[in-house]
Amino acid sequence: MRAAWLLLALGLLWAGAARADPPREPVLRVEAGAHSAPVSRLATDAAGRILASVGDDKTLRLWSLPDGAALGVLRPPIGPRGEGELYAVALTPDGTRAFAAGFTGHGWDGAFAIYLFDTGSGRMLARLPGLPAPVLHMAVSSDGARLAVALGARAGIRVFDARQGRLIFEDSQGWQGAARMVAFSRDGRLASTSADGQVRLHDGQGRRVAARAPVQGARPYGVAWSPDGTLLAVGFEDRLRVEVVSGTDLAPVLTPDTSRLVGEGLPAVTWAGDGQGGVQLHAAGYARAAAAVPGQPTFVVRRWADFGLGPPRDIPAARDAIAHLLPLPMGGVAFAAADPGWGRITPDGALAHSPTAPSADFRATGGRLMASADGRVLGFALAPHGPRLRFDAAAGRLEPGGAEGLAAARREAPRLQVTDWQNRDRPRLNGRPLPEAPGEFSRSLAIAPDGESFLLGWDTALRRYDRQGRLLAELPLPATAWGVVALEGVAVVALGDGTLRWIGLDGPRMTERAALFVHADAVRWVMFTPEGLFDHAPLGGQELVGVHLNNGRAQTPEWASFQQAYRALFAPAAVRARLAGDPRPAQDRMAELGDVRARIGRLPALAPGEACAVTPEGCVALPWGTAELPGEATALRLSFDLSDRGLGLGPLDVMVNGRLAMRSPTAPGRAELEVPLDPGPNRVAARLYADDQALFAEGPALELRRAGAAATTPGAGRLIVVAVGVDQYAVRELNLRFAVADARTVVDTLRARGAGVFREVVATLLTDAQATRANILGALDAAARLARPEDTFVLYLAGHGIRAEGDRRFLFLPHEVAAPTADMQALQRSALDEGALVAALARIRARDGFLFIDTCHAGQLTIDSLAALGNETGRFLLAASTSVQEALDSYDDRNGVFAFAVREGLTGRAPADQEGRVSALALGEWVTRRVPQLAAERQHRQDAVFRSAQRDLRSFPLAGAPR
Prior knowledge:
By secondary structure, the protein is mostly beta strands.
């Protein structure tokens, strides 16, 4: 089949000349692990193991059933505005191939295309071009031989050979509206609906055997065959009505009861088993129960027993319209919603999986956007009934907060009366329509502070107008502008993709300065520039946005999250400067990096090989994806196929439950390794670095459940501490005063406060002459031999730290360093380099870990350089870096500022839980707030950075504080 489609990709070309290639410029896209825009359609394989979903966010996502775990993301080529939006998806019966289409290919072909993906690898296999209209729905026949396509405009339907891509038949005559949906019966008949009011029926040879308007003047939308193929259910987009008609001649059979529903229509219909041999009819769309229950989802799925003859039952399912209902082979249905997201209803009618949006719903809250006068502080809400949040871009801080110092959009001015602008296509200025209407809907309005111009946020762009309604400037946007605030020289826009964007109003032009994406958990966030430089929240966010790179028309796009390009693109200072209107630091950083597109496009390839679980009886084979782990399994044996695509090969890392569990050297070809597992569930993922280790490719992941085994209890094991402090160096001019005292203070405090939390505290303290490179690595090796998953590990480094020239990597200077700091080559030979440190940490099995880096430097090391350690190891990282001159003064003549703040936090100043324990999260937040305050008291300037790369945001106790 694959070979046939590859031949199709070469042989089936649209008759017209190609206009262009997909855009080559990098495109920054939100990637929050779920759909960030309304979901249009769903599909499943014959066994009901895989669910595919597509939506307006230009992604096809795969999920395992019934648990709903994410399996992967398939990406088509995309372009500006609607290019790449997916409205239709279909899976082959075996689930190995996925067809995806929508507004696809038109930007470069002038016609539309269907893409074919391999669901296992995520690679695009081929495309079927030359379609005259967008694809609105697709269906694969039960034998996998045919693909039916519903086309927009008045282009009708087409049926292709699903294996060869050959056109079998088409029906395009007499259509007065778009084809809406298509459905195959088990014996190969094809039913279709159209906005022209007709339902059409074709036999297995493609002959139209019946056409009928079930309800005069109504627009049929959804269509579904009963399991026995004798009946068709038809739903309507403009009526709260479902018609059941004959599967032979479309004659009316039954009109199920739709009383006590309110709304505009029931466009989604399906039949599904009830798990007991019965068949239930389901319908949904814009329908809401007349007597809604407070706190429950508003939009309902109505379900009738006995093929629709039985009494109805309403199942509250979504908070926005439901676009599609899909019967599942195991019984029950899945549904696609505009929440955005998808859900699942069990055979007995229970809601088992709810649509869960990963981002802000600015459709409902964008109008409440507020900003400070300079735009650096924003106030907003992620959900209609959610708390208000306050984001300080200068401080990099997100927290609950009110409206103090913030102002909402100005919507009235003496000489500017803008009306009919909210969700309308013809806004009026001073009573007259705007002279230039773009043919879309306006959603938001803000009048400039001087009252001489105004901004309108539209579906595809932000536009600025003068007092006469003349268009002054236009900026295309990646999503609808649901809110806008105009300030002096800058505007802030709330978009439908969940981002807030700062737009410079630079004279006659508008240019994007920076963007902010806040996850729905209100904890993780990422702020980024148009170039792709970024900053993120202490507890993550670097995985939430990435770089999409188109290749050819029939080639898989490249994708790399900010997490994969952390060392290259993490640049908080440049991001803040860009937001403030100074692009030079960002330009300098990008010039230093070179061609980022070329580098991301040549990331090494990491393909899955074999996986098995090591047990006392042998090695049990496991599939990639989601699997059941034998209860007695202690390790995984994994193999990968590694390929160099031009950047060389660096180390291969394996992450277990978010932390680095193994680092292995590599060479092209097959790599085999064995990785220890944690008790309880395990998420195992792989990373393959390029040779310079600035970027890595992500490999496949395994989500492993372990039946009957509990997860590790936080704090149930030992606290293992390795602390290093160096005051006395072999080169006297490097000497410090308080590094040893700082390391000793932290060790003493952890011993005292950890006694009531951990079973045992095991601490190793290396100072001055003891703190050689060999001894530090030896202490880490001893910790690795001792540590078990239930333990907690802490590393504290105090002394000199510098950044290596060229690769910008962190070097910690041990006692024996004998070269002046200007001799970089000599330093790199004797220093504890970051690579050796990460490799040592990879061998420490403690599930919970905290890295403290307290370094002095001669000016070139910043805390930004240290943050990558947390990203690579998956450990909490708390770091401070200050100049040598400032570090010579302590805060209290005993400790430096950083150690003083750590001691404060561990001894009760940081917030404690109900059991009196100070968590890693609480300590990190305390120290980052406290260090600048303490430094300012001593007329110094010092900051601290707190970072974590763990996806599950787990914290853990570090100390017991007094009650």
